[in-house]
Amino acid sequence: MAPPMSADSFLDALLGEGLTIVQVGAWRTHNRDHIGPWGPVHGVMIHHTATSGTADTVRLCRDGYQGLPGPLCHGVIAKDGRVHLVGYGRTNHAGPGDDDVLRAVIAETALPPDDEANTDGNPHFYGFECENLGDGRDPWPRVQLEAIERAAAAVCRRHGWGAPSVIGHLEWQPGKIDPRGFTMSSMRARIAERLA
Q1: Does a structural domain hold residue 1?
Q2: Helix H segments across 24-138?
Q3: Domain N-acetylmuramoyl-L-alanine amidase, which positions (predicted)?
Q4: How many domains are contained in the chain?
Q5: Measured between alpha carbons, how far is 64 from 172 in angstroms, rounded to an integer?
């Protein structure tokens, strides 16, 4: 059972992995902690935003929308590879998912099919939203993929986790497709190589 990093430790971990960080407003205290606990944390979840345009994407992920208040993640990874920190603590990114998947993430074993939505993931995952339309045609620039790799590795390194602690939203919640345009197995391979 891992307690979350402090916001400053999170920032230090990202910077230590060589990322360019944009701090958006009072991100350290912008959260949904009044809804429920933040932690224990067990992994990192990767999403695509289904949006275009960095400024609008960051604003949406910080503020949310009707029916789903922000923040919608901890960091937004833009096409240019910069990571915009929009919140810290419990955020509305993971939603309900499969308890068998959570157990596999904790054990760092092969993921089972996500065929249930019986467990709230928001307390348990760091979340990165990645700017992409998610239509399978919008490109993933090399610098953005590298930033995803570095951001996930930064969190894993700080917690002593391996690459199996990093999952995509599509591996957590039935019906989700994100991230679309690269495979999570290929991303985990990159993260494992970086951590090694």
Answers
A1: no
A2: 54-63, 99-107
A3: 27-180
A4: 1
A5: 21
How far from 119 is each of 1, 20, 77, 103, 125, CA to CA, in Å?
Answer: 16, 33, 26, 11, 12
Angle (nearest 5°) at CA 4 between 109 and 175: 50
Residue 129, classed as helix, strand or coil, is strand
In a domain, 183, yes or no: yes
Cis peptide before 123 (omega within 30 of 0): no
Q: Is the torsion defined by CA of 167, 93, 98, 180 positive or negative? A: negative
Q: What's the Cα-to-Cα distance from 100 to each of 22, 40, 81, 130, 139, rounded to whole Å?
A: 35, 17, 32, 25, 32
Express the helix, strand and coil content of the chain in percent, nearest 5 each.
Answer: 35, 15, 50
Query: How far is residue 191 CA from its own chain's centroid?
Result: 14
> How close are the terminal C-alpha atoms of the chain, in Å?
23
Do the domain assignments include residue 60?
Answer: yes
Do 127 and 45 touch, CB atoms closer than 8 A? yes
Token digits of residue 94: 């993971």
Q: Using the Cα atoms of residue 107, residue 108, residue 112 and residue 117 in order, give the sign of their dihedral.
A: positive
0.85 exceeded by the pTM? yes
Q: Is the peptide bond before 179 cis (omega within 30 degrees of 0)?
A: yes
